[in-house]
Amino acid sequence: VKNNNAFLVKRGKKNSRCGAVQFSKERGNLLNVNSFKYSGLANSKAIDIDHSLNLTLKAPKKSNAPAKNVTTIPLKKCAKTSSKVVKSQGCNKFYRADLTAAATGRYAKLYRDSQVKKGLAKAARSKTGRNSR
Prior knowledge:
- The structure is a single chain.
- This protein is of the alpha+beta class and 133 residues long.
- The chain is built from two helices and five strands; from the N terminus they run βββββαα.
- It has helices at residues 79-90, 100-118, and strands spanning 8-11, 21-24, 47-49, 54-58, 70-74.
- The strands form two sheets. It has a three-stranded antiparallel β-sheet with strand order 3-4-5.
- Helix 1 runs antiparallel to helix 2 (100-118).
- The relative contact order is 0.12.
């Protein structure tokens, strides 16, 4: 699963100065990085937050039944309440406490993006040039 799978996306040229960057598009991968820690395939417990702001948890006991494997929790309330749900449901000490920062960060980015699409918030300014602020 590490070196070759259907979800692997390789970017850049691999040469002596820098290696190619590897991303992963699998479900359950919070940072979309090709590593065991964030993998939704390799871990029995995985957390995912999709673009429609749904928190998805992978059930470790139902790993042999993929249709019943996931639990979906909609995050439709305000940002403060939903971030508490993300921390309590997916990132508590009995599930995946090591993914707390990644899950809350992904929710914050997706929530901000949804507000920009609705026209309720301005988009972040992009930096261009050397000394731009």
